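[audit] Reproducing an earlier prediction to check determinism. Same input, same settings, fresh worker. If the tokens differ from the archived copy the diff job will pick it up downstream; this log only records the rerun itself.
[audit] input (247 residues):
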Amino acid sequence: MIELQNLVKHFGDVRAVDGITLTVPQGEFFAVLGPNAAGKTTTIKMVVGLIRPTAGSARVAGFDVQAQPLEARARLAYVPDFPFLYDKLTPWEFLRFTGQLFRMTDTEIARAADELVPRFSLESWLNKPIEGLSHGTRQRVAIASALLHNPEVFVIDEPMVGLDPHHARVVKDVLKERSQRGMTVFLSTHQISVAEEMADRIGIIHQGKLVAIGSAADLRRQAGTDGALETAFLAITSEAKATTVAE
């Protein structure tokens, strides 16, 4: 459902993404971990078509993101770590606007909203201007609107930013349920516990390279540890850094 083939991105002399090849099948919950400036967000932006790769390709639901952008974007949803919302709109207006972008009828929008609004506890805020909402409430509006058209692929960067424990649990539950029903989830996070709890597979990106991939148990085996996943993550990224320095 997501296919990355030798994906490369340069920013001047900086090689932000360095030849990532990856396939995430339909219905898989895939999480990406990595240190700051590892290339996670740059990879995501190439997956969703916001930036053009220097080399390689990204395909979503069988469509090349650069060559067939409308077909690819019609089948995916993207929520960045700090989503942009139209502050003068209300959450209901924003949901309706988003649904119309995906050519949903008013009946389809209302039916999807009837499920998502109470699930994300948005009833009290539905007709208030977005500019007056807290960051956590805005995040819930962004996620609900992204799910409105029932995307085949859902890409989200740092989903738990600003969410209280209750609503973080709701987001986890909704994404896992959708994944089990066939939606492919591609999630980037710094929270190792979120990746371990939610993901079917985890990829570790370090200095632009995909240095490890597999289940939490697979990563522990690769690192030679049976302790916390954090310990495996630190061992794998330290080894990758040492290899890069040696090269």
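[audit] rerun output stored. Observation attached for the diff report: The domain at 2-75+153-246 is CATH 3.40.50.300 (Rossmann fold).
[audit] end
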